[in-house]
Design a protein that fits this description.
The protein is 35% helix and 19% strand. The protein has 253 residues and is an alpha/beta fold. Helix 1 crosses helix 3 and helix 4 crosses helix 5.
């Protein structure tokens, strides 16, 4: 299914009647031999393990008052979705049917994640807040213009934890797309000693799928108003996380 090439930003092809998203690939020699072997083997192993264990998880939906949550199997459209980096594994499994596009860094780790997510049905635009940021946002804008959703790990790829980057806010301003905020919290999980306290849900655990309030960004906002809106996004994401923690009986951390 995959060649030893890296996926680069998605572009929009206007040559036909209907807009479509196409991939642009880079040369295969971008990575070392050992890295290419890793890319050829690891994604399928991770996918197989995730699909096996993921089907034992029990998901429980909850939401802030007045918020309609998005269930597994829903058909998303022209929206932006955000969640914290630590719950990416559970999110990737639960929302795999959305075929959403995700902003992923251009590093080797980003390439590995891209290939795993592609097996789950996701698409990727390559870029980050530190490298290829503008190119990544333009790629996501084209995805939204085609009527399909995009997803941000709001505090990724390097943190600090639970503090959103400005990328989602800027994209919402450019496209006038609303930002949906959610968090998935497993009752039982292995927690990595990483900046994001990455969670690996244990088999057969229950997982709270918690939705917070949507974040809206006006096209007319000034640069000075972007930071308060970013802080509002933080608050909406944290509200969803705290509700999930409470639901599964965990203390707030």
């Amino acid at each position: 299914m995959f060649s030893d090439r890296s996926y680069r930003p998605l572009i929009t092809d206007h040559s036909s009647k209907h807009t479509k998203i196409v991939r642009v690939t880079a040369a295969a020699n971008r990575f070392t031999l050992s890295q290419r072997l890793t890319l050829a083997i690891v994604p399928r192993l991770v996918w197989a393990l995730l699909m096996t264990v993921g089907h034992t998880w029990r998901f429980e939906m909850l939401a802030e008052e007045g918020v309609t949550p998005a269930f597994h199997g829903f058909i998303p459209s022209r929206e932006i979705y955000c969640f914290w980096h630590q719950c990416v594994l559970a999110c990737a499994f639960y929302y795999r049917s959305t075929h959403a596009t995700i902003l992923i860094s251009q590093s080797f780790d980003g390439e590995l994640i891209t290939r795993i997510l592609n097996l789950l049905g996701y698409r990727a635009v390559r870029g980050s807040s530190s490298r290829g940021g503008r190119e990544g946002l333009l790629g996501l804008r084209r995805v939204l213009d085609a009527g399909t959703p995009v997803i941000f790990t709001a505090d990724g790829p390097r943190g600090p934890i639970h503090k959103a980057k400005l990328g989602p806010i800027k994209l919402a301003q450019l496209t006038q797309s609303p930002i949906g905020c959610f968090h998935l919290e497993p009752e039982k999980a292995w927690v990595a000693r990483s900046w994001d306290r990455f969670q690996i849900p244990k088999p057969f655990t229950r997982i709270a799928v918690s939705w917070g309030h949507w974040t809206y960004v006006s096209e007319e906002v000034t640069n000075e108003e972007l930071e308060p809106l970013r802080a509002q996004l933080d608050a909406n994401l944290e509200s969803a996380r705290i509700r999930a923690l409470t639901h599964v009986g965990k203390g707030i951390a």
